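User: Continuing from earlier, I have the next pair ready.

Assistant: Great, send them over.

User: Here they are, in order.

Assistant: Folding the first of the pair now:
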Amino acid sequence: MTALTLSTAGAATLRADALVVGVAKGAKGPVVAPGAEAVDKAFDGKLASVLETLGATGAEGEVTKLPAPSGLKAPVVLAVGLGAVPEKDEAYDAETLRRAAGAAARALNGSKKAAFALPVEAAEDAEAIAEGALLGAYAFTAYQGNNKDTKDSKNAGATQATGSRAGAKQPLGEVALIGAKPRDKAHKAAAERAIALTEEINRARDLVNTPPNDLFPESFAAVATAAGKEHGIRVQVLDEKALAKGGFGGILGVGQGSAHGPRLVKLAYTHPKAEKTLALVGKGITYDSGGISLKPAGHNETMKCDMSGAAAVFAAVVTAARLGLRVNVTGWLALAENMPSGTATRPGDVLRMYSGKTVEVLNTDAEGRLVLADALWKASEEKPDAIVDVATLTGAMVLALGNRTFGIMSNDDAFRTSIHEIAEEVGEQSWPMPLPAELRKGMDSPTADISNMGERMGGGLVAGLFLKEFVGEGITWAHLDIAGPAFHEGAPYGYTPKGGTGSAVRTLVKLAERTAAGDLG
């Protein structure tokens, strides 16, 4: 993992492989951002003009490397674009700093140490830069080269990998943050939070990126159990026998076609002074073939990512424990592998769910809502103050909101608004979505209490309405459909890598912090 230090040294005197500075897009050309004064001085006050000569504009995410002059200890200066210069008396927002730091960290793969001299006016700025750099430095290399240890399914997703193919550059080794104050209580806390949060986001990314022959319900449950022991979280794992005895027809129905049996994992972090309890439920389909309703060619290759919701819930609970938040956080991981076989659920089968309701399965590729339904009802039995489920649930949500934005549905408009505001605050793109009552009728079944499919138009909202049926009466609930941003297939940008992203973890952790502080009522 990339290390983080808060440095008291100046930008000119700190020894590092590279020195990162910010450059903004001004009306008349690039403008050197605060934090780089000593670097600009070493260039005789001409850093902006040198960058402009090299083609730099200050556009967001733009990276320009140049040799350092003799007045600096670092041999290379890396200027990263921050976008437009802020209005007078305004600072760079946290997400701008986060993305710039991520872009810089990615550009410095192979370096042992880099000093970041980006604008820091408060502890929040230092935290954003640290988050961006640590997330941007992520790489998943477990299956490259001769790294036999990380190919063991028992270790799947447990740590960021260290193996690599011959010649591949390793991630940036250390981030030295200039401008932060290591002896300041707020700055120290910001750094500690950034480390805990990014390590768990990166662990979630590892889980999402681990191939399905190594990550299946049992091995995912083993990772959760090991983390629980490490961080004082109580973990309970229900296997096939326990699920059958308990009547978890949804989870069993989805997993019965696979050689890898399903699991329901409960992680419980408790604080002795907590006044509120937050339940998080994650869809954990470790591989989704579609089952008997087989996905067409071209739609299967990335379906290892269908457990991203469970990975996000797992990471959020562990982060809450590491931060010692004054709130009880319970995570439910609904784990199954959806495969076609002679024992698989067929279209037309009826499943009796844990709640007692019966569901006619019209499409076995609408399986996420089935495992979530059982977990939601189980979570409801404990009467938490709120439940939030997270899932790569529908392609319809991607069609509606694109690849970078997740949808938020809820049975409480104020709660939905709060989650949207929190997501925007932490830099995760989201949008509130409705639950139109008229779409419920499309799920009426002549055979069972409800079917798992409804109208095609508004399919993401239909899925939300299905889940709402399995939330206990009087419990505040929200559903995050992260199908778009959970897995990034394009080129990396900012702090977002190719592959698993760790979507929704930051939102869930901030929600837990707000709940602990009593800010959500």
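And the other member of the pair:
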Amino acid sequence: MPSIRFNRNRVRLRLLLGIRARLALLAVILVAPLMLERARSLETARARQIAQASEEFSNLAKHSTDTQREVIMSVETVLKSAAYVRAGTAGIGRSCDLLRASLPLNLPWIRNVMIAGRDGRVQCATLNGFVGLDFSDRPYFIKAQQTRGFAFSDFRLAKRDQAPIMIAAYPVSAITGEPDAVVLASISLEWMSKVMGNLDNRPGISAVLVDSVGTVLAAASDEASYVGRSLDSVPLLSAIAETAMSSTKDEGAMSFVAADGARRAISFNRIADTGSRLIVSIDETRVTAAIDREIRTAYLQACFVCLFVLLGALIAAEKLIIQPINILAATAKRFGFGDWSARASTRLPSEFVPLAKAFNAMAAKLGQRERELLATNDRLTVMASVDVLSGLANRRGFQNRLDFEWMKAQQADGSLSLLMIDVDHFKLYNDTYGHPEGDACLSRLGATLSGIAMAAAGFAGRYGGEEFCLLLPNTEAGRALEIGELVRTEVAALTLPHATSSHQYVTVSVGVACAQPNPQIAVADLIEAADAALYAAKHRGRNNVVAHGIIEVIENGETMARAN
């Protein structure tokens, strides 16, 4: 059983790995690497593009950070200048006049500059509406007094117009060394958002400036709605809020998968001397959307090219290989079934023409040999059916003819007569004259019967030894009896000497039988009837003609009928 299963699997494998499958596999092997190499090169270009985009936006983020730092430094410079003015001027009125006169007009991000006393109340301001405000409880005011350095507030809304601002504070004590006033400046965050304009309208890019507690201070114009919101509530950035705000590094980068399934890269930079951070988020999917489309197109092209190559290989295999093979196989099959005229067409692909010519040459030789064999076989068949001595059909040939005539008579509803003829005392003839003379006697009798058969449209044969038979199609019993008598008289007329016979010459006894073939009787019944009639003729003294069922004894020209 295992060997049978193995053979079946081997046959299935051969069918599976036929010419079509092999050509298709070859086509895929040739084409697929080229297309996959193109896709791989695009994948490499995609990775390179992501790296370049990350580097580009990192540089932009650093540039934005530097710009923000310059804004902070300009504020720091203004506050220090105001602190020096306050420290070197006696009287608050004089200090305020100098402050208003020295405020640069080219720094639009500074909305207001104030000088608050040691108690936190604003003594003077570039905008009079702020005089008298109390900053003593503000964390940045307290921090500036304690550290004697710059301090910045977190996100705030201006009381007058609710604009987003930050407050910067610088103590005069940093110059005098004694507790004194604190110079304050409100910074417009709208202007900081404008500074981030180089990140506007870039697909897949989000950039925000956040304070120390994670409130958005500034954003690009297309994300202005984020200003004032907590970083936790900003879409796509909430996942990294805690990590970005808790980092102690001045700059860093990370990547993560956002809630929408997109992979994002994050970089953040701290604004020097502040708790603020600039956070830039890159959506790799949107950044690489164009090249991703090219990659998908490349894979689709690879699939289509492979499909077309496969179809082309299959069509080429069908036209150039399979079809010629099938044509040759069909021609060989026709030839095998006996169509000796079958020849392979030479209008085939050039590779098959030599095979077709070789087949045609072989077919021509085999056809010639087959014709010769048929002719030889026909001759052998004739020789096998003819008795050489008498020149008549032998028993085999006679039996074949009898079967044929029986079937023919049965189909035509006709009659068929049979004469069984035996040479009287032929053994004594051989003993008296010798076998050569006996053969000569049989040869003379055969020629005589052949002539009678030709005249009567019958068929004569040698049934065996000295016994002959004569088949008479479409002949009734009466006519058959007459022909039987003709045979007897023609043989007697030969006057072949036979000294041991009572008649002194060679005579024959004839048994006649006639039948109308039908399914109820067989050929053997006719032979048996004729043989019985022959036996009766011999019993009547030989040289007689007897019909089965009626005995006709003809002697000296007189006919007598007797019941058998």
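Worth noting for the second one:
The CA atoms of residues 171 and 436 lie 165 Å apart. Residues 550-564 have pLDDT under 50 and may be disordered.
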